[in-house]
Amino acid sequence: MKTWIFLFSFFLLCTACKQEPVKYDSPLERLMAGNKRFMAGHPVHPDETLQRIRDLKKGQDPFAIIVGCADSRVPPELIFDQGLGDIFSIRTAGNIIGDYELGSIEYAVEHLGCKFIIVLGHENCGAIKAFIENPDTTNQHDHIKNIIEYISEENEEHSLAEADKHQVDKAVKANITHGVHLLQNAQPVLKPLIDKKEVTVVGAYYDLDNGEVIITDK
Ligand SMILES: [Zn+2]
């Protein structure tokens, strides 16, 4: 009898091991499912093997472009529980988007066939804080002023009141919206594709308290 129970358990275990990979309706759904696993403390760390990188040697086919902050607390592959070859990642302090970043996004869209972009801001962003604490860069000589000036432009776009400048979160979210608008209007590559719904851009905010990614702009 015990032998039968053992064999039956073994059969069930083998069946579980052979489960088909989950199919997702969209890149966003796939990313959000990964974020849920990360938040729950049960990441599966997909696509991290040496065999995976060997498989990718001939070329990559990432399913999402993530424009995020360079902050060490916001690594896209970890917070979305993805692996090698899954995400085309562009990271700058404050997730700002200049010519080089835009060129990288266009490369991933045109040459890698990537159709989904997330502009990802996060709670307590140091670059945004730097702008709020010192918006006047007149006497600043380091290159951080370039980042602050970029965020200043976005601040004008969203007409944040003086009082709001003390609310880092509002500025972080305005910066996300600014990034989304910038990509939606980027000529000559992105705007036509986005207008035809061949490429999608969304904005998202990463919460440092619980690791949740919340979609803020669609
Ligand atoms: Zn940041």
Plain-language structure description:
The structure is a single chain. The chain has 218 residues and is α/β, with parallel strands linked by helices. 45% of the residues lie in helices and 14% in strands. It is built from nine helices and five strands. Strands 2-1-3-4-5 form a five-stranded mixed sheet, with helices on both faces. Helix 6 (126-133) crosses helix 7 (144-157) and helix 7 packs across helix 8 (168-184). The protein is globular. The N and C termini lie far apart (58 Å). The model has no long low-confidence stretch (mean pLDDT 86).
Provide the fold topology.
Elements: H1 2-17, H2 27-39, H3 50-55, E1 64-69, H4 76-79, E2 87-92, H5 99-112, E3 116-122, H6 126-133, H7 144-157, H8 168-184, H9 190-195, E4 200-206, E5 213-217
Helix pairs in contact: 6-7, 7-8
Bound molecules: zinc ion.
**Beta-strand residue percentage:** 5-15%
Class, according to the CATH hierarchy?
Alpha Beta
- Could you list the spans in which at least 5 consecutive residues all have pLDDT below 50? none
Write down the overall geometry.
Answer: globular
CATH fold label: Beta-carbonic Anhydrase, Chain A
CATH architecture: 3-Layer(aba) Sandwich
CATH superfamily: Carbonic anhydrase
**Rg value:** 21 Å
What portion of residues is helical? 40-55%
Count the beta strands: 5
- Please state how the strands of the largest beta sheet are arranged side by side: 2-1-3-4-5
Distance between the termini: 58 Å
> From the helix content, strand content and strand pairing, which structural class follows?
alpha/beta
Overall pLDDT metric:
86
Give the ligands present.
zinc ion
SSE string? HHHEHEHEHHHHEE
**Which sheet architecture does the biggest sheet show?**
5 strands, mixed
Number of domains: 1
- Tally of alpha and pi helices: 9
